[in-house]
Design brief:
Length: about 500
Protein backbone atom coordinates (compact mmCIF):
# COMPACT_ATOMS: atom_id res chain seq x y z
CA UNK A 1 0.00 0.00 0.00
CA UNK A 2 1.35 3.42 -1.01
CA UNK A 3 1.45 6.03 1.76
CA UNK A 4 1.22 9.60 0.50
CA UNK A 5 1.29 12.84 2.43
CA UNK A 6 -0.28 16.03 1.16
CA UNK A 7 2.28 18.83 0.85
CA UNK A 8 0.04 21.53 -0.56
CA UNK A 9 -1.70 22.60 -3.74
CA UNK A 10 -0.21 22.27 -7.23
CA UNK A 11 -0.81 25.01 -9.76
CA UNK A 12 -4.00 24.13 -11.60
CA UNK A 13 -3.90 20.45 -10.54
CA UNK A 14 -5.37 20.30 -7.05
CA UNK A 15 -3.64 18.71 -4.05
CA UNK A 16 0.06 17.84 -4.41
CA UNK A 17 1.08 14.60 -2.69
CA UNK A 18 4.44 13.14 -1.79
CA UNK A 19 5.00 9.36 -1.92
CA UNK A 20 6.54 8.67 1.49
CA UNK A 21 7.86 5.19 0.67
CA UNK A 22 9.52 6.49 -2.49
CA UNK A 23 11.04 9.36 -0.51
CA UNK A 24 12.64 6.91 1.91
CA UNK A 25 14.49 5.34 -1.02
CA UNK A 26 15.40 8.46 -3.02
CA UNK A 27 16.01 11.32 -0.49
CA UNK A 28 15.06 15.01 -0.81
CA UNK A 29 16.87 18.33 -1.28
CA UNK A 30 15.16 21.65 -0.46
CA UNK A 31 16.77 24.90 -1.60
CA UNK A 32 15.69 28.52 -1.20
CA UNK A 33 16.98 31.85 0.02
CA UNK A 34 16.32 32.98 3.57
CA UNK A 35 12.61 33.75 3.96
CA UNK A 36 11.50 31.52 1.09
CA UNK A 37 9.66 29.09 3.41
CA UNK A 38 12.08 26.15 3.73
CA UNK A 39 11.44 25.64 7.44
CA UNK A 40 7.69 25.87 6.82
CA UNK A 41 8.02 23.18 4.15
CA UNK A 42 10.02 20.90 6.45
CA UNK A 43 7.48 21.41 9.25
CA UNK A 44 4.62 20.50 6.88
CA UNK A 45 6.45 17.32 5.84
CA UNK A 46 7.21 16.37 9.46
CA UNK A 47 3.65 16.98 10.63
CA UNK A 48 2.03 15.06 7.78
CA UNK A 49 4.37 12.05 8.11
CA UNK A 50 4.70 11.92 11.92
CA UNK A 51 2.16 9.09 12.23
CA UNK A 52 3.80 6.95 9.52
CA UNK A 53 7.58 7.02 10.03
CA UNK A 54 10.17 7.65 12.74
CA UNK A 55 11.74 11.12 12.47
CA UNK A 56 15.07 12.63 13.49
CA UNK A 57 15.52 16.40 13.12
CA UNK A 58 18.93 18.10 13.24
CA UNK A 59 17.85 21.60 14.31
CA UNK A 60 20.61 24.24 14.51
CA UNK A 61 18.24 27.07 15.56
CA UNK A 62 15.82 25.27 17.89
CA UNK A 63 12.80 26.00 15.66
CA UNK A 64 11.40 22.45 15.59
CA UNK A 65 11.27 21.75 19.34
CA UNK A 66 7.58 22.75 19.26
CA UNK A 67 6.86 19.40 17.56
CA UNK A 68 7.33 17.74 20.94
CA UNK A 69 4.13 19.14 22.45
CA UNK A 70 1.81 17.91 19.70
CA UNK A 71 3.54 14.93 18.11
CA UNK A 72 5.57 13.51 20.99
CA UNK A 73 9.07 14.17 19.68
CA UNK A 74 11.79 13.93 22.33
CA UNK A 75 14.02 17.02 22.46
CA UNK A 76 17.74 16.19 22.84
CA UNK A 77 20.15 18.99 23.77
CA UNK A 78 23.30 18.96 21.65
CA UNK A 79 25.36 20.06 24.66
CA UNK A 80 25.86 16.39 25.61
CA UNK A 81 29.31 14.94 25.01
CA UNK A 82 30.07 13.31 21.67
CA UNK A 83 30.21 9.82 23.17
CA UNK A 84 26.87 10.40 24.92
CA UNK A 85 25.29 11.59 21.68
CA UNK A 86 26.44 8.43 19.90
CA UNK A 87 24.90 6.25 22.59
CA UNK A 88 21.68 8.30 22.56
CA UNK A 89 21.45 7.91 18.78
CA UNK A 90 21.87 4.14 19.08
CA UNK A 91 19.02 4.00 21.61
CA UNK A 92 16.89 6.23 19.35
CA UNK A 93 17.15 3.64 16.58
CA UNK A 94 16.64 0.71 18.94
CA UNK A 95 13.42 2.13 20.46
CA UNK A 96 12.19 3.90 17.29
CA UNK A 97 11.66 7.24 19.02
CA UNK A 98 11.23 10.47 17.02
CA UNK A 99 13.65 13.13 18.30
CA UNK A 100 14.71 16.73 17.69
CA UNK A 101 18.43 17.39 18.25
CA UNK A 102 18.54 21.10 19.11
CA UNK A 103 21.93 22.80 18.71
CA UNK A 104 20.96 26.42 19.36
CA UNK A 105 23.12 26.73 22.50
CA UNK A 106 26.36 25.78 20.66
CA UNK A 107 28.75 27.67 18.42
CA UNK A 108 29.21 26.58 14.81
CA UNK A 109 32.13 24.21 15.40
CA UNK A 110 30.43 22.57 18.37
CA UNK A 111 27.26 22.18 16.28
CA UNK A 112 29.25 20.36 13.59
CA UNK A 113 30.87 18.03 16.13
CA UNK A 114 27.55 17.25 17.84
CA UNK A 115 25.74 16.61 14.54
CA UNK A 116 28.59 14.38 13.33
CA UNK A 117 28.50 12.32 16.54
CA UNK A 118 24.70 11.92 16.47
CA UNK A 119 24.54 11.03 12.77
CA UNK A 120 27.42 8.62 13.28
CA UNK A 121 25.49 6.89 16.06
CA UNK A 122 22.46 6.55 13.79
CA UNK A 123 24.63 5.19 10.97
CA UNK A 124 26.51 2.64 13.11
CA UNK A 125 23.39 1.19 14.76
CA UNK A 126 22.94 -2.57 14.96
CA UNK A 127 21.58 -4.22 11.79
CA UNK A 128 18.54 -5.42 13.74
CA UNK A 129 17.62 -1.78 14.34
CA UNK A 130 17.75 -0.59 10.72
CA UNK A 131 14.14 0.60 10.69
CA UNK A 132 13.09 3.41 8.29
CA UNK A 133 13.96 6.85 9.66
CA UNK A 134 13.34 10.26 8.09
CA UNK A 135 16.45 12.33 8.94
CA UNK A 136 15.76 16.04 8.40
CA UNK A 137 18.75 18.41 8.46
CA UNK A 138 17.94 22.12 8.39
CA UNK A 139 20.65 24.58 7.23
CA UNK A 140 22.61 21.67 5.75
CA UNK A 141 25.32 24.00 4.41
CA UNK A 142 26.54 24.36 8.01
CA UNK A 143 27.22 20.62 8.31
CA UNK A 144 28.35 19.88 4.74
CA UNK A 145 30.14 23.05 3.57
CA UNK A 146 31.52 23.18 0.06
CA UNK A 147 34.70 24.92 1.25
CA UNK A 148 36.73 25.25 4.44
CA UNK A 149 35.69 28.06 6.79
CA UNK A 150 36.63 29.36 10.21
CA UNK A 151 36.17 25.98 11.93
CA UNK A 152 38.93 23.42 12.36
CA UNK A 153 39.59 20.85 9.65
CA UNK A 154 38.88 18.04 12.11
CA UNK A 155 35.35 19.27 12.86
CA UNK A 156 34.62 20.00 9.19
CA UNK A 157 35.80 16.57 8.02
CA UNK A 158 33.84 14.77 10.73
CA UNK A 159 30.62 16.65 9.93
CA UNK A 160 31.05 16.34 6.17
CA UNK A 161 31.78 12.62 6.48
CA UNK A 162 28.65 12.06 8.55
CA UNK A 163 26.48 13.96 6.04
CA UNK A 164 28.05 12.05 3.14
CA UNK A 165 27.30 8.73 4.87
CA UNK A 166 23.71 9.86 5.44
CA UNK A 167 23.07 10.76 1.81
CA UNK A 168 25.29 8.19 0.04
CA UNK A 169 25.14 5.06 2.21
CA UNK A 170 22.20 5.69 4.53
CA UNK A 171 19.50 4.13 2.33
CA UNK A 172 20.55 0.53 3.06
CA UNK A 173 20.51 1.32 6.77
CA UNK A 174 17.00 2.77 6.59
CA UNK A 175 18.13 6.41 6.81
CA UNK A 176 16.37 8.77 4.40
CA UNK A 177 18.05 12.17 4.25
CA UNK A 178 16.00 15.35 3.83
CA UNK A 179 18.33 18.34 3.67
CA UNK A 180 17.53 22.04 3.32
CA UNK A 181 20.00 24.75 2.33
CA UNK A 182 19.92 28.44 1.54
CA UNK A 183 22.36 28.15 -1.37
CA UNK A 184 23.40 25.17 -3.46
CA UNK A 185 26.80 26.80 -4.00
CA UNK A 186 27.52 26.52 -0.25
CA UNK A 187 26.57 22.82 -0.06
CA UNK A 188 29.11 20.07 -0.80
CA UNK A 189 28.42 18.58 -4.23
CA UNK A 190 28.79 14.96 -3.06
CA UNK A 191 25.97 15.52 -0.57
CA UNK A 192 23.63 17.40 -2.91
CA UNK A 193 24.16 15.00 -5.83
CA UNK A 194 22.69 12.00 -3.96
CA UNK A 195 19.19 13.49 -3.73
CA UNK A 196 16.69 12.42 -6.40
CA UNK A 197 13.81 14.68 -5.28
CA UNK A 198 14.01 18.48 -5.33
CA UNK A 199 11.93 21.36 -4.04
CA UNK A 200 13.35 24.67 -5.27
CA UNK A 201 12.13 27.92 -3.72
CA UNK A 202 12.80 31.61 -4.26
CA UNK A 203 16.38 32.27 -5.43
CA UNK A 204 18.02 35.49 -6.64
CA UNK A 205 21.70 34.81 -7.38
CA UNK A 206 22.49 33.76 -10.94
CA UNK A 207 24.78 30.88 -9.94
CA UNK A 208 22.12 29.37 -7.67
CA UNK A 209 19.38 29.79 -10.27
CA UNK A 210 21.58 28.08 -12.89
CA UNK A 211 22.30 25.09 -10.61
CA UNK A 212 18.63 24.81 -9.64
CA UNK A 213 17.61 24.91 -13.31
CA UNK A 214 20.16 22.18 -14.15
CA UNK A 215 18.79 19.93 -11.43
CA UNK A 216 15.21 20.42 -12.66
CA UNK A 217 16.06 20.20 -16.36
CA UNK A 218 15.01 23.80 -17.14
CA UNK A 219 16.62 26.19 -19.59
CA UNK A 220 18.12 29.54 -18.63
CA UNK A 221 14.96 31.45 -19.50
CA UNK A 222 12.88 29.30 -17.18
CA UNK A 223 15.54 29.59 -14.46
CA UNK A 224 14.77 33.29 -14.01
CA UNK A 225 11.29 32.36 -12.82
CA UNK A 226 12.79 31.37 -9.45
CA UNK A 227 13.04 35.08 -8.66
CA UNK A 228 9.28 35.46 -8.99
CA UNK A 229 8.32 32.72 -6.54
CA UNK A 230 6.52 33.90 -3.41
CA UNK A 231 7.13 32.73 0.13
CA UNK A 232 5.91 29.13 0.43
CA UNK A 233 5.99 28.49 -3.34
CA UNK A 234 8.33 25.78 -4.65
CA UNK A 235 9.02 23.90 -7.88
CA UNK A 236 8.97 20.12 -7.28
CA UNK A 237 10.63 17.35 -9.26
CA UNK A 238 11.47 13.73 -8.48
CA UNK A 239 10.05 10.20 -8.33
CA UNK A 240 8.36 10.89 -4.99
CA UNK A 241 6.83 14.19 -6.18
CA UNK A 242 6.39 14.62 -9.92
CA UNK A 243 8.05 13.38 -13.11
CA UNK A 244 7.91 16.90 -14.55
CA UNK A 245 8.68 20.25 -12.84
CA UNK A 246 5.55 21.07 -10.82
CA UNK A 247 4.95 24.47 -9.15
CA UNK A 248 3.14 24.11 -5.84
CA UNK A 249 2.26 26.08 -2.74
CA UNK A 250 2.98 24.46 0.62
CA UNK A 251 -0.07 23.98 2.83
CA UNK A 252 -0.68 25.22 6.38
CA UNK A 253 0.96 23.74 9.47
CA UNK A 254 -0.47 22.99 12.92
CA UNK A 255 2.59 23.95 15.00
CA UNK A 256 4.59 27.15 14.88
CA UNK A 257 8.29 27.89 15.30
CA UNK A 258 9.60 29.76 18.30
CA UNK A 259 11.14 32.39 16.01
CA UNK A 260 9.06 34.41 13.56
CA UNK A 261 9.79 36.74 10.67
CA UNK A 262 10.38 40.36 11.71
CA UNK A 263 7.32 42.59 11.50
CA UNK A 264 6.99 46.34 11.82
CA UNK A 265 5.78 47.47 15.24
CA UNK A 266 4.68 51.08 16.00
CA UNK A 267 7.30 53.07 17.94
CA UNK A 268 6.40 54.00 21.53
CA UNK A 269 5.27 57.53 22.27
CA UNK A 270 8.10 59.88 23.47
CA UNK A 271 8.51 59.84 27.24
CA UNK A 272 8.04 62.99 29.27
CA UNK A 273 11.52 62.83 30.85
CA UNK A 274 14.73 63.66 29.05
CA UNK A 275 15.44 60.89 26.54
CA UNK A 276 19.20 61.29 27.00
CA UNK A 277 18.99 60.64 30.74
CA UNK A 278 16.57 57.78 30.06
CA UNK A 279 19.11 55.73 28.08
CA UNK A 280 22.39 56.80 29.76
CA UNK A 281 21.35 56.58 33.42
CA UNK A 282 20.97 53.03 34.77
CA UNK A 283 17.75 52.16 36.57
CA UNK A 284 17.83 51.23 40.24
CA UNK A 285 16.71 47.65 39.63
CA UNK A 286 18.71 47.12 36.43
CA UNK A 287 20.96 44.02 36.67
CA UNK A 288 24.67 44.39 36.06
CA UNK A 289 25.59 43.06 32.62
CA UNK A 290 29.16 41.94 32.03
CA UNK A 291 30.68 42.20 28.55
CA UNK A 292 30.30 39.11 26.44
CA UNK A 293 33.46 37.02 26.22
CA UNK A 294 35.32 36.97 22.95
CA UNK A 295 34.55 33.99 20.78
CA UNK A 296 37.02 31.19 21.22
CA UNK A 297 39.58 30.70 18.50
CA UNK A 298 39.07 27.67 16.23
CA UNK A 299 40.43 24.52 17.83
CA UNK A 300 43.65 23.44 16.07
CA UNK A 301 43.82 19.99 14.55
CA UNK A 302 46.17 17.32 15.96
CA UNK A 303 48.47 17.83 12.96
CA UNK A 304 48.74 21.56 13.73
CA UNK A 305 49.50 20.81 17.38
CA UNK A 306 52.25 18.37 16.43
CA UNK A 307 53.82 20.94 14.14
CA UNK A 308 53.69 23.58 16.88
CA UNK A 309 55.26 21.19 19.36
CA UNK A 310 58.00 20.28 16.87
CA UNK A 311 58.82 23.97 16.27
CA UNK A 312 58.78 24.94 19.96
CA UNK A 313 62.09 24.01 21.54
CA UNK A 314 62.54 24.64 25.25
CA UNK A 315 65.42 26.87 26.25
CA UNK A 316 68.45 24.86 27.35
CA UNK A 317 68.84 24.68 31.09
CA UNK A 318 72.02 25.93 32.77
CA UNK A 319 74.76 23.33 32.97
CA UNK A 320 74.82 23.44 36.75
CA UNK A 321 71.09 22.61 36.95
CA UNK A 322 71.08 19.87 34.32
CA UNK A 323 70.65 16.32 35.60
CA UNK A 324 70.97 14.03 32.56
CA UNK A 325 69.61 10.49 32.88
CA UNK A 326 71.49 7.40 31.91
CA UNK A 327 70.28 5.42 28.91
CA UNK A 328 68.83 2.73 31.21
CA UNK A 329 66.95 5.30 33.32
CA UNK A 330 65.70 7.08 30.19
CA UNK A 331 64.34 3.83 28.68
CA UNK A 332 62.70 2.93 31.98
CA UNK A 333 61.01 6.37 32.09
CA UNK A 334 59.80 5.96 28.49
CA UNK A 335 58.36 2.53 29.30
CA UNK A 336 56.55 3.97 32.31
CA UNK A 337 55.00 6.77 30.22
CA UNK A 338 53.91 4.33 27.50
CA UNK A 339 52.30 2.02 30.07
CA UNK A 340 50.44 5.01 31.57
CA UNK A 341 49.07 5.97 28.15
CA UNK A 342 48.10 2.36 27.35
CA UNK A 343 46.30 2.08 30.71
CA UNK A 344 44.29 5.28 30.18
CA UNK A 345 40.59 4.28 29.69
CA UNK A 346 40.16 6.99 27.04
CA UNK A 347 43.29 6.10 25.04
CA UNK A 348 41.43 3.60 22.88
CA UNK A 349 39.16 6.36 21.51
CA UNK A 350 41.94 8.65 20.19
CA UNK A 351 44.16 8.52 17.13
CA UNK A 352 47.88 7.83 17.37
CA UNK A 353 48.60 11.49 16.50
CA UNK A 354 46.64 12.71 19.53
CA UNK A 355 48.30 10.14 21.81
CA UNK A 356 51.71 11.19 20.48
CA UNK A 357 50.96 14.76 21.50
CA UNK A 358 50.13 13.57 25.02
CA UNK A 359 53.33 11.49 25.03
CA UNK A 360 55.51 14.52 24.18
CA UNK A 361 53.93 16.55 26.98
CA UNK A 362 54.55 13.79 29.51
CA UNK A 363 58.19 13.47 28.38
CA UNK A 364 58.80 17.19 28.82
CA UNK A 365 57.23 17.14 32.26
CA UNK A 366 59.81 14.48 33.23
CA UNK A 367 62.65 16.34 31.47
CA UNK A 368 63.50 13.59 29.02
CA UNK A 369 64.56 16.13 26.41
CA UNK A 370 62.99 17.09 23.08
CA UNK A 371 61.82 14.43 20.63
CA UNK A 372 62.46 11.33 22.75
CA UNK A 373 60.80 9.18 20.06
CA UNK A 374 59.65 9.96 16.54
CA UNK A 375 56.10 9.10 15.51
CA UNK A 376 56.84 5.69 13.88
CA UNK A 377 58.90 4.58 16.89
CA UNK A 378 56.17 5.80 19.25
CA UNK A 379 53.53 3.83 17.34
CA UNK A 380 55.62 0.64 17.60
CA UNK A 381 56.44 1.09 21.30
CA UNK A 382 52.80 1.90 22.14
CA UNK A 383 51.65 -1.24 20.30
CA UNK A 384 54.08 -3.26 22.40
CA UNK A 385 52.81 -1.64 25.62
CA UNK A 386 49.19 -2.31 24.70
CA UNK A 387 49.98 -5.97 23.99
CA UNK A 388 51.78 -6.34 27.33
CA UNK A 389 55.13 -6.96 25.60
CA UNK A 390 58.61 -6.00 26.77
CA UNK A 391 62.09 -6.43 25.44
CA UNK A 392 62.61 -9.73 27.31
CA UNK A 393 59.52 -11.32 25.80
CA UNK A 394 60.54 -13.92 23.22
CA UNK A 395 57.28 -13.49 21.29
CA UNK A 396 57.40 -9.69 21.16
CA UNK A 397 58.77 -9.52 17.61
CA UNK A 398 56.32 -12.20 16.43
CA UNK A 399 53.30 -10.32 17.80
CA UNK A 400 54.42 -6.96 16.40
CA UNK A 401 55.26 -8.49 13.00
CA UNK A 402 51.79 -10.08 12.75
CA UNK A 403 50.18 -6.81 13.87
CA UNK A 404 52.18 -4.69 11.39
CA UNK A 405 50.72 -6.64 8.48
CA UNK A 406 47.20 -5.41 9.33
CA UNK A 407 45.63 -1.99 8.69
CA UNK A 408 46.07 0.47 11.54
CA UNK A 409 42.28 0.53 12.08
CA UNK A 410 42.24 -3.08 13.30
CA UNK A 411 45.60 -3.30 15.07
CA UNK A 412 44.08 -2.46 18.46
CA UNK A 413 41.58 -5.30 18.04
CA UNK A 414 44.34 -7.77 17.11
CA UNK A 415 46.50 -6.71 20.06
CA UNK A 416 43.61 -7.21 22.48
CA UNK A 417 43.09 -10.73 21.14
CA UNK A 418 46.83 -11.44 21.28
CA UNK A 419 46.98 -10.31 24.91
CA UNK A 420 44.05 -12.54 25.86
CA UNK A 421 45.44 -15.54 23.93
CA UNK A 422 48.93 -15.28 25.44
CA UNK A 423 47.51 -15.05 28.96
CA UNK A 424 44.88 -17.75 28.42
CA UNK A 425 42.13 -15.28 29.30
CA UNK A 426 38.53 -15.52 27.97
CA UNK A 427 37.92 -14.12 24.52
CA UNK A 428 37.03 -10.39 24.76
CA UNK A 429 33.40 -9.48 24.13
CA UNK A 430 32.15 -7.43 21.17
CA UNK A 431 31.91 -4.42 23.47
CA UNK A 432 35.56 -4.80 24.49
CA UNK A 433 36.66 -5.22 20.86
CA UNK A 434 34.73 -2.05 19.94
CA UNK A 435 36.57 -0.10 22.64
CA UNK A 436 39.88 -1.40 21.31
CA UNK A 437 39.22 0.15 17.89
CA UNK A 438 37.87 3.41 19.30
CA UNK A 439 34.22 2.74 18.49
CA UNK A 440 30.95 2.42 20.41
CA UNK A 441 29.45 -0.07 17.97
CA UNK A 442 29.78 -3.81 18.73
CA UNK A 443 28.49 -4.48 15.23
CA UNK A 444 31.43 -2.65 13.71
CA UNK A 445 33.78 -4.67 15.92
CA UNK A 446 32.27 -7.92 14.64
CA UNK A 447 32.71 -6.78 11.03
CA UNK A 448 36.35 -5.89 11.60
CA UNK A 449 36.94 -9.20 13.39
CA UNK A 450 35.57 -10.96 10.32
CA UNK A 451 37.93 -8.87 8.17
CA UNK A 452 40.94 -9.88 10.30
CA UNK A 453 39.86 -13.52 10.00
CA UNK A 454 39.62 -13.15 6.22
CA UNK A 455 43.26 -12.03 6.23
CA UNK A 456 44.23 -15.26 7.99
CA UNK A 457 45.49 -13.50 11.13
CA UNK A 458 42.92 -15.17 13.41
CA UNK A 459 40.56 -18.15 13.36
CA UNK A 460 37.22 -17.89 15.17
CA UNK A 461 35.05 -20.76 16.39
CA UNK A 462 32.09 -21.18 18.77
CA UNK A 463 31.68 -23.85 21.41
CA UNK A 464 28.42 -25.60 22.34
CA UNK A 465 27.53 -22.89 24.86
CA UNK A 466 27.73 -20.12 22.28
CA UNK A 467 31.05 -18.77 23.62
CA UNK A 468 33.63 -17.50 21.14
CA UNK A 469 37.21 -18.81 20.93
CA UNK A 470 39.80 -17.02 18.79
CA UNK A 471 43.04 -18.74 17.75
CA UNK A 472 46.12 -16.84 16.50
CA UNK A 473 48.09 -19.14 14.16
CA UNK A 474 51.15 -16.86 14.09
CA UNK A 475 51.48 -17.11 17.90
CA UNK A 476 50.41 -20.73 18.27
CA UNK A 477 47.88 -19.93 21.01
CA UNK A 478 44.19 -19.22 21.44
CA UNK A 479 41.88 -17.42 23.87
CA UNK A 480 39.63 -19.12 26.34
CA UNK A 481 35.86 -19.30 25.72
CA UNK A 482 34.21 -15.91 26.14
CA UNK A 483 30.67 -14.58 25.76
CA UNK A 484 30.66 -12.20 22.74
CA UNK A 485 27.61 -10.34 24.11
CA UNK A 486 29.03 -9.74 27.58
CA UNK A 487 29.00 -6.15 28.83
CA UNK A 488 31.77 -4.49 30.79
CA UNK A 489 35.30 -3.17 30.64
CA UNK A 490 37.88 -4.75 28.29
CA UNK A 491 40.75 -7.00 29.40
CA UNK A 492 42.43 -5.49 32.51
CA UNK A 493 45.79 -3.95 31.86
CA UNK A 494 45.16 -2.98 28.24
CA UNK A 495 42.82 0.01 28.32
CA UNK A 496 41.99 0.06 32.03
CA UNK A 497 44.20 0.81 35.02
CA UNK A 498 45.64 -2.28 36.64
Amino acid sequence: MTISVEMGVAAGQGPASLDLEELLATRLLVQGNSGSGKSHLLRRLLEQSAAHVQQVVIDPEGDFVTLADRYGHVVVDGAHGEADLQRIAARVRAHRVSVVLTLESLDVEAQMRAAAAFLGGLFEAERDHWYPVLVVVDEAQLFAPAAAGEVSDEARKASLGAMTNLMCRGRKRGLAGVIATQRLAKLAKNVAAEASNFLMGRTFLDIDMARAADLLGLDRRQAESFRDLERGQFVALGPALSKRPLPLRIGAVETSPRSTSPRLVPLPAPAAEDLRDLILTPAADEPLRLPSPRPAAPRPSPTDLLQQLAQARPAPEPAEEASPLSETEREAALDTILREIAADPDAGHHTVAVLYQDFLVRCRMRRLGPDPLDLPAFRRRLAAARAGLDGADAQADTVLTACAGLPEEVQGLFLLLARAAREGAPCPSDDALARAIGSRSPGRARRLLAFVESRGAVVCRTDFRGNRIVALPALGCETGPGDPKAQGAPLPGLFAAE
